[in-house]
Design goal:
three-stranded antiparallel beta sheet, two-stranded antiparallel sheet, 91 residues, 5 strands, alpha+beta, HU Protein, Chain A
Length: 91
């Protein structure tokens, strides 16, 4: 399911207009992005949690050429499924 399919499903199941459903989904996604950027952890009970993991830079090598390269530090989003979601998936 992609974002537009989520919006369409929300509109159909709640009798919202397509514009209102789009606004709701965009507001939800934007709120998660802003919270993650601020360093907050997001937890949606029964679904899972999102957080940012920070990885330091390190010296690596290109496996093809063997050349040493410097890998810059980065921040990545990490999702962990909640207990209820895991149980639902494994029914």
């Amino acid at each position: 399911m992609n974002k537009s399919e989520l919006i369409k499903t929300l509109a159909e199941e709640t009798d919202l207009s397509l514009d209102d459903a789009t606004l709701a989904v965009n507001t939800f996604v934007d709120s998660i992005k802003k919270a993650l950027l601020a360093g907050d952890r997001i937890e949606i009970r029964g679904f899972g949690s999102f957080k940012i993991k920070e990885y330091g830079g390190y010296s690596g090598r290109n496996p093809k050429t063997g050349e040493k390269i410097s890998v810059v530090p980065k921040r990545l989003t990490f999702f962990r499924a909640g207990k209820e979601l895991k149980e639902f998936i494994n029914q």
